[in-house]
UniProtKB/TrEMBL annotation:
Protein purpose: Additional factor that functions in concert with eIF-2 and the initiator tRNA in directing the ribosome to the proper start site of translation.
Record domain SUI1: where: 27-97
Keywords: Initiation factor, Protein biosynthesis, Translation regulation
Protein name in the entry: Translation initiation factor SU
Entry GO MF terms: ribosomal small subunit binding; translation initiation factor activity; translation initiation factor binding
Origin superkingdom: Eukaryota
Amino acid sequence: MSTIQNLNSFDPFADTGDSEAQPTNYIHIRIQQRNGRKTLTTVQGVPSEYDLKKILKVLKKDFACNGNIVKDEELGEVIQMQGDQRVKVSEFLTTQLQLPKKNIKIHGF
């Protein structure tokens, strides 16, 4: 008669210590539908060492669109811009601010 092995000593869901899912601060670029063909582009998660007001001023001038900074309880400060500026914002963040492209997530459509 074989004995039943006790597996209670090993917890398969225990924290092993290797934090493969470390919190990398992603920058999320999203698009929101307004009314009709109008859209909003939102940028959240920009590192706090950057001045959002200066970034927004440059983005508005370069992309010829309006925008503002919205303070959100959960997400912190979020940049909002008129129109679909996702690709342009992504290029701006990688070229001008030298942010790694792997930290930028583009969402929508």
